[in-house]
């Protein structure tokens, strides 16, 4: 895709990067990225994707903006209270970059609705806050052969990985699925929700920005993605660690479960 004069100036700092340049920026412009959740993780993620020039951003969220959201969901403001998050986020994107098209999906994505929705996009970024959505999205991405960037938040910790389970690694083995890393969701009630446990607002900004980095990397094609690696962030100790994980031949998606 050709860049206009306005876009050339807007993305000048990308264009001078050898690893991105004109071809990479053109890929960003042509890309269609689906973002699950316009909350704590989605807020910085959406803004950086828009600033980077992702051509089409799909936003999935069925919630409205509440006052307690504003401590971390920085794409929304006080005047947005009570509005659908996809509507508020879409307006913020329009203010930031008019070259980006936003497609709002004011729904809760499910295992049933995910396949048709994913078919319209090239890359998926999941910033949801519940396990049912994470597993539904990750399973659907495997079957749809879509790259998935997925992150999660705790009180003072976060994690991030990229799933490309429809591809094989350099060793010829399949790349791991989300279920290779987390075979099953925890029992109900084992992990308290954000409203009960709390979360450091700035940590959502860090993790959402890292998600944007992985999405941009997946589209523009530079560097080494977090495939088979789980990035863990400890905000109390300000420590970043990476855990390697691999394909589990017994996983329920691409493996042969042991009977």
* Element-level helix/strand string: HHHEHEHEHEHEEHHHEE
Radius of gyration: 18 Å
The low-confidence runs, each spanning 5 or more residues with pLDDT under 50, are none
Q: Strand order of the main beta sheet, please?
A: 3-2-1-4-5-6-7-8
DSSP helical segment count = 10
| Estimated share of beta-strand residues | 15-25%
User: How would you describe the oligomerization state of the chains in this entry?
Assistant: single chain
How far is it from the N-terminal to the C-terminal residue, by CA? 50 Å
What is the helix content? 25-40%
Give the strand tally. 8
Shape estimate: globular
Major sheet: size, sense and barrel closure? 8 strands, mixed
Q: Summarize model confidence as the mean pLDDT.
A: 95
Which structural class fits the helix and strand makeup? Answer: alpha/beta
Describe this structure in words.
The structure is a single chain. This protein has 259 residues and is an alpha/beta fold. The protein has ten helices and eight strands. An eight-stranded mixed sheet has the order 3-2-1-4-5-6-7-8, sandwiched between helices. Helix 4 (42-52) packs parallel to helix 5 and helix 4 packs parallel to helix 10. The longest helix is centred in the C-terminal third of the chain and has 20 residues, at 201-220. The mean pLDDT is 95.
Topology:
Elements lengths: L4 H6 L1 H4 L5 H10 L1 E5 L5 H11 L3 E5 L24 H12 L4 E5 L8 H5 L4 E4 L4 H14 L3 E6 L3 E7 L14 H4 L12 H4 L3 H20 L8 E6 L4 E6 L15
Helix pairs in contact: 4-5, 4-10
